[in-house]
Amino acid sequence: MFKIPDHQVAGHQASTGIIGPLIDDSGRFYKPLQSDHRGSQEVEFYTKFSSITEIPNHIRKFFPIYYGTKQIEASDGSGPCPHLVMEDVVSIRTNPSLMDIKMGSRTWFPTASEDYIMKCLKKDRETTTLPLGFRISGFQIYGDKDSGYWKPERKYVLGFSTDDVRVALKKFVSSNSSNDLVAEPDCAFAESVYGGPNGVLAQLLKLKTWFENQTIFHFYSCSVLMVYEKEPALKGHSPGVTVKLIDFAHVIEGEGVIDHNFLGGLCSLIKFISDILDNLPHNSAQNSEN
């Protein structure tokens, strides 16, 4: 009934001696409930989020559906343990391309232990988290039935420079997604994935509008997950772009203050994606004419 996800690109992954998430055939994702405060904090967030009536429905769709908690056998066979049960946002996809982007220029929350803060600071300083306000945590890009997926090692991705991030975001929506960042991306799917009324940019702008006003939560170490499929786009259909916020183990009360940390990272990501769309060949030609 339960199996290890094929399309996880970041976070704790199940392996020998390590407990990780599971999925089932009904479209549900089972995340092991962490034994420290992180597990209870994520449950508390989902519980409170579902009860807050002032969160509009068009914003709720950016959060995975939450089904509560359930005791199931751990992925390593060590016995039953509690899991968060959520919507599996890639379950309906055949060959999904997805990218996990950790938001904010600061990934540690104010009441964290000094050891935890130092650990986060080290990673924030060694990645694009500080200069860009976000970092790519992991991704996979589907090429075709012959080439399959490009899913680079996490250590490689965390070593990305600003230029690498820019190329990876282009490569994510390209048809020539070879297993490196060298070949110039053709951005063949940029218009249909990043652009349009239902594309990534439009969805991120909706989130931005909400984050410019919401003071209920501060989303530390939360990620934006982008998912789409190339095959429908190749046939002239919508690639079914999905944008979700995930990972809420470090969400704290907003206490009436805007979440500038998340909002800053979101604005930075929006700028990167806007630049890609503005510099597509046909747009560049139009700009030069004007």
Write up what this structure looks like.
This is Inositol polyphosphate multikinase. Belongs to the inositol phosphokinase (IPK) family. Keywords: ATP-binding, Kinase, Nucleotide-binding, Transferase. It is a single chain. With 290 residues, the chain is of the alpha+beta class. The protein folds into two domains: 2-87, Phosphorylase Kinase, domain 1, CATH 3.30.200; 96-279, 2-Layer Sandwich (D-amino Acid Aminotransferase, Chain A, domain 1). The chain is built from eleven helices and eleven strands. A five-stranded antiparallel β-sheet has the order 7-6-5-9-10. The chain has a four-stranded antiparallel β-sheet with strand order 1-2-4-3. β3 (66-73) and β4 form a beta hairpin. α8 (200-211) packs antiparallel against α10 (260-278). The radius of gyration is 19 Å and the shape is globular. The mean pLDDT is 89.
Rg calc: 19 Å
Poorly predicted runs of 5 or more residues: none
Let me know the largest β-sheet. 5 strands, antiparallel
Portion in strands: 15-25%
Please provide the count of β strands: 11
- Spell out the CATH superfamily of the largest domain: Inositol polyphosphate kinase
Q: Please report the first level of CATH classification, the CATH class of the largest domain.
A: Alpha Beta
CATH fold naming of the largest domain: D-amino Acid Aminotransferase, Chain A, domain 1
- Helix coverage percent: 25-40%
Coarse morphology: globular
How far do the termini sit from each other? 59 Å
Number of domains: 2
Question: Could you say which structural class the secondary elements and strand pairing correspond to?
Answer: alpha+beta
What's the order of the H and E elements? EEHHEEEHHEEHHHHEEHEEHH
Number of helices: 11
Overall mean pLDDT stands at: 89
